[in-house]
Amino acid sequence: MNSAAIFYGVAGGMVILGSFAVLGASLYLAYARKDQIVECFKNSPGVTSAAPSQRGAIRSHLMWISTVTSYVAFPRGHLRRGEVDRRDLDALPASLRRELIVLRWTLLSLCGSAILLFVFGKSVLDLDQS
User: Fold this and answer.
1) What letter does residue 2 receive in the DSSP assignment?
2) d(Cα 25, Cα 33) in Å, to the nearest integer?
3) Disulfide-capable partner of 61 in 30, 70, 88, 97 (CB 3.0 to 4.6 Å)?
4) pLDDT band at 12, cuts 50/70/90?
5) How far apart, in whole angstroms, are the C-alpha atoms of residue 44 and residue 89?
């Protein structure tokens, strides 16, 4: 086993562990802070209409929190379509806003890292075998 294979294996393992951490943080926000998020977005139909019940499935909670993080991290298009209200975004507590934005960017970074690792790792490891 060469050093490139070890590097890509360790980096891939870090991406997988990071994905589990993001999954845990998403579930925490979706279950423990759902009421606070819904209260902050009371004028935004995209958040209130899609909010899952407390007994809802894990998948619906993950999809809902992903939607909310998208509204907070990239609000321009959602404001234009009327899915979120500007007053709700402005009134969002700074700590909650930060958590949602960090969660969204961490998720996007992990997805990008996984794609780059796959593309470059496959090409590097294929060159080593030939």
Assistant:
1) -
2) 11
3) 30
4) very high
5) 9
